[in-house]
Amino acid sequence: MEQDEMLLGVQDYCHIINNMTDGYSYCKLTTDEEGNPIDYMFLQVNHAFLEKLGLTNNEVIGKPASEVIANFKAEESDLLQLFSQVALHGERRRLKKYFSILKEWCIVTVDSYKRGYFIVIYHFLSTAESNQDVTPDSYKEENFTYFNNAIINEFGYKDSYIENQTKDLKNRLEEKGAYLQKLLEYDKLKTDFFSNISHEFKTPLNVILGTLQLLNLYFKDNSSLDKRVKQKVRVIQQNCYRLLKLVNNLVDITKIDGGYYEISLENHNIVEIIKVITYSVKDYIEEKGIYFEFYSEEEEIVTACDPDQIERIMLNLLSNAIKFTKPEGRITISIKKRKDSLLVIVKDTGVGIPEDKLELVFERFMQANKTFSRNNGSGIGLALVKLLVELHKGSIRVESKLNEGSEFIIRLPIYTLDYEVNEKENVMEVQKEPIEKIHIEFSDIYFNQNY
Known about the structure:
The protein is α+β, with helices and mostly antiparallel strands. The chain has helices at 3-6, 10-19, 47-53, 65-68, 72-89, 127-131, 136-139, 145-155, 159-220, 227-258, 270-280, 282-287, 307-323, 381-391, 424-431, 435-441; strands spanning 23-31, 37-45, 93-99, 104-114, 117-124, 266-269, 291-296, 302-305, 330-337, 341-348, 395-401, 405-413.
């Protein structure tokens, strides 16, 4: 066999890595400003590793170990020290470790890749091996012999060729690692750009809206003014609200992505909160010739929530329902209690969503329904709704049939914080006068005005 035919291809290596019974991970060490190791990031893993953790590739790749592994400090403190020694000093090391979360013994073998990077092989011991006096030294020889043997058994290649291809694989991994780092840096630049540009938009918008409010006060004292002037001012104001809604959504999504968006959880009767919000838009719905209904199985469900964010979620879903429901249609808001959770359902008899577009509904900048070009939004609203629901430890899904309507179903956990529930008056105070918020969230809906 010619030498070039014997060389192991990168695809073959990936095939072997993914089909190994042992867990595999390629990682980057993370240090603080003083260079002390504090964490590590997963850059590549195999199927066996994912199966042990019960996670998917998207939940692991590019994520720090402290985020991926539960009880990281207790489970990983000794491993982090081991990984640091290997990544920073190039020492190949092994240890036998008991993972309390998995309730299994494991031989952990670590090899250096380049400074700051390392490769780990996790060999989980069988019950028989666990009962024997298995040590890291008795497990396998140096140079990942068992890994090389697997390659030799499957392809018949010799160690010299494997060593050459290992170097090639390491070079390719280095390139991918550098590419991933560039992508992360680009994503940060994009996030910073959205944040900065959003704030730059917000400042002049607030000035314009403040001026329009003064004009509206002036109009009240001068009823003789031309109605066309008042109409034009309303047009300007509504479109300012549309821009403000877009800016607010961009700012909030940027904050959530950056991990510094906070919600203020307090114990509230969430039924009352949702009821006040929905009835505050009843006139808007009926003005469009749409029937409206609110129903709750319980008068009171006390749970930890942020009323302002619940209001944001509901107004967004109601705005969406109004946009795509024709006159004589119906919008129903219902609340149902389950054992440890509650369901908030916003149902409409609108145009519905094609089945092949349902997965796009909560994606950013995607519009599942473009039937009415005038009603097209930015594609951010429902993505933000999903993020806000998830910040409440909840979930949201959609069921829909084309030309029959859509049903958005929110599931929120029922739990309380360790202090007294807020009084009803306080809840009402939070929800008092939400008119401007309604104007903002409903700004892309044109009501019966001669624009």
